[in-house]
Amino acid sequence: MAVQRIPADELCDARFLASLEHLRVVAKRVAPRGRFAEQRSRDKGSGIEFKDYRPYSAGDDLRGIDWNVYRRLGRVFLRLFEELEDLPLYVLPDISRSAYLETPPRARAGLRCALAMAAISLGQHDRVGVFPFADDLSVLLRPTGGKGRVLELARRLGEIEPGGETDFERSLATFRGLRLREGLVCVVSDFFDPRGIEAVTSALGKLQHRLLLVRLVRQSDARPELAGDVRLVDCESGDVSDVSITSEVLARYRAAYAQFVEHLANFARSRGAGLLDLDVERDVIAQLERLFASGAYTA
After folding, report:
1. Which of 31, 196, 212, 224 gives 182 a disulfide partner, CB atoms 3.0 to 4.6 angstroms apart?
2. Is residue 133 a contact partner of residue 170, using CB atoms and an 8 Å limit?
3. What are the residue boundaries of the structural domains of the chain, listed by start?
4. pLDDT tens across 52-72, in order?
5. Do residues 141 and 45 touch, judged by C-beta distance below 8 A?
6. First to last CA, the chain
7. Greatest mean pLDDT range, 43-52, 119-128, 206-215, 285-294
8. Which contiguous run of DSSP H or E holds residue 215?
9. Full-model pTM
10. β-strands 89-93, 128-130: how paired?
11. Is the CATH number of domain 8-27+87-225+263-298 3.20.20.70?
12. What does the alpha-carbon distance between residue 119 and residue 214 come to, in Å, rounded to a whole number?
């Protein structure tokens, strides 16, 4: 079955962008050595908000000395201020072949979600990188800033060619090899992998970043409407299985699917990761707003 790209005009329009303007991603703390932005950093330096004191050491900037403390105590202390820096956002949309099948394809909702998260972060001066993956991971956009890049990103997302079979282990190993500054990794996928959900969470668990998992779902995933003798064709590998669908077979499938969902949810809780089920047949922004209950998502 032929699969086609998702054109940019299906991913982005003026109404779509306007609906994102009230949403923000807020970090409890960000990794040091970033650039000036709006997030609170673990760095202490010459920012705006006073944080602490420490004794003066040879070579410190004399402008940081608190002379009032010196006059009172006769000791030299530096004032430390909280730095405001950026929270890098790394968006990993699943572009495996299966994501481009069905109507509507999961890739459409997935890429719209990826674009929305990128637009929110770019709008608050955070750097954004986009790394589509299937059988391996590629670099669509290296971490960069600038609100004006949103439309260009939409165009580039619309040029993505569907990939091959899903391979989380290989794709995330490639991502780790990029050695990017600690940030928020947003993985947008159905999290189906031929090696099973344990392989998926094992690969995710090796990432030294905060995680936001957006799971692309449709109602038929949990309760497929199948009956009788059917031939099942794996849409990525092409493997064929002839199956007689009985009530017992459906019950076993539903139990296995429930275990899959529970395993991913348990992993997210153990990592303190965000987890959102995104119904691909419903409006993306309305569902994303569940992450931003008070206008902001805290990473």
Report:
1. 31
2. no
3. 8-27+87-225+263-298, 43-85
4. 666 877 767 777 777 887 788
5. no
6. 40
7. 206-215
8. strand 210-217
9. 0.80
10. parallel
11. no
12. 16
